[in-house]
Automatic annotation (TrEMBL), chains A, B:
<dbReference type="InterPro" id="IPR036390">
    <property type="entry name" value="WH_DNA-bd_sf"/>
</dbReference>
<protein>
    <submittedName>
        <fullName>PadR family transcriptional regulator</fullName>
    </submittedName>
</protein>
<dbReference type="Pfam" id="PF10400">
    <property type="entry name" value="Vir_act_alpha_C"/>
</dbReference>
<dbReference type="InterPro" id="IPR018309">
    <property type="entry name" value="Tscrpt_reg_PadR_C"/>
</dbReference>
<dbReference type="InterPro" id="IPR005149">
    <property type="entry name" value="Tscrpt_reg_PadR_N"/>
</dbReference>
<dbReference type="InterPro" id="IPR036388">
    <property type="entry name" value="WH-like_DNA-bd_sf"/>
</dbReference>
<feature type="domain" description="Transcription regulator PadR C-terminal">
    <location>
        <begin position="97"/>
        <end position="180"/>
    </location>
</feature>
<dbReference type="Pfam" id="PF03551">
    <property type="entry name" value="PadR"/>
</dbReference>
<feature type="domain" description="Transcription regulator PadR N-terminal">
    <location>
        <begin position="11"/>
        <end position="85"/>
    </location>
</feature>
Length: 182, 182
DNA sequence: GAACGCATGTAACCTGTTACATGATTGT
DNA sequence: ACAATCATGTAACAGGTTACATGCGTTC
């Protein structure tokens, strides 16, 4: 099966959520979905243009009060069809992360144990802080969006982040113990 | 902080583990560390050459009986220093996976719930199979390498995979329930 | 007029995969 | 002759980041 260009679908999907300009898309990505998807301006703007070229979206110049002009993108029927097709298609692959910490641990045999412990501890601190952010966001969604279907899917993706992160934190704790006892 | 070229360190690290040729490196990656790191021949061979150019490794032509010739790479003192430096340096970033399933769920608001459930179920099946592989490998290591320090670090990285994958499987179960009850 | 947020854009670069080409050696 | 495994390599392409350039509008 040919590999899909995901960026296309991210943009297509986001402009259906009232997130219509390149800038707004970048904002929502950084604030809401960055825990499972990231994207840079260098990808956003050229690809938005491409959506229009491919007839999947149309663009409209909008002037706002108190802010610079912006370009608003709207999905077309063809775009909606394309997005739907992709959403209904089974996922192609389960992600395999490149994990710098595990790589370092894998080669730590000939290193002082101290250093490995230090690495894991640092990782743990970062994860704990990430966890706090997730928990905070969860509370916000539960308070504001309660009941809406949007909120449901948002909470589901967030829950994924919460659970996997918690598992990682626990692994850190136990790994540090193991290394100490060595 | 400047971003490191991890491939370099993977190769440098692997040639210290008696994994000396491009082919052997590819094998060990596919069989042992692919759950946290992947790499293709298109990266391996040019980068091995680069290690030599940079004085971090030396290469030696070796002829074997019953098999074609191969090139064996050995780390130099400079290479060992460079590897050590990297291993002791704090990790730069916690990985953020691009997760196709979460992306699709995020945009599933306007889709029939059936489809979302189907996607999650498929993901769950894949994860379950991955989990079985991990558990099998774990048993093999515990039986053969017991006690050696190599085995310890191997088990630690594997444990990471086991725990996070288990958390994901549980998330799948609960998410399917949630979607059904909707 | 400086700083800041909003907004769009791109060129240079880096990383990495895919697909292909090549060939040795062994076993059937 | 051929398939399979071992072994090395590269060119074309795809995907993505970084760093920069540009400019509007508001606030201090």
């Amino acid at each position: 099966m040919a590999k899909e260009n995901y960026t296309k679908y991210v943009l297509l999907g986001l402009i259906t959520t009232n997130c219509r300009s390149g800038y707004a898309i970048k904002q929502i990505i950084d604030n809401s979905i960055s825990h499972f998807w990231k994207i840079s301006y260098g990808q956003i703007y050229p690809n938005l243009k491409k959506l229009v070229d491919d007839g999947l979206a149309v663009v409209e110049d909008t002037s706002q009060e108190g802010k610079p002009d912006k370009k608003e993108y709207f999905i077309t029927d063809a775009g909606r069809e394309e997005l739907q097709r992709w959403l209904q298609q089974p996922i192609e692959e389960i992600p395999t992360v490149k994990n710098e910490l595990l790589l370092k641990l894998y080669f730590s045999r000939h290193q002082p144990t101290e250093i490995a412990i230090e690495q894991v501890r640092f990782y743990q601190v970062e994860l704990a802080s990430r966890l706090k952010t997730y928990e905070q966001i969860e509370r916000v969604i539960q308070n504001t969006g309660e009941g809406t279907e949007d909120a449901m899917y948002w909470l589901i993706t967030l829950d994924y982040g919460l659970r996997t992160t918690r598992a990682m934190v626990e692994w850190c704790e136990d790994t540090i113990k193991k290394l100490r006892e060595k």
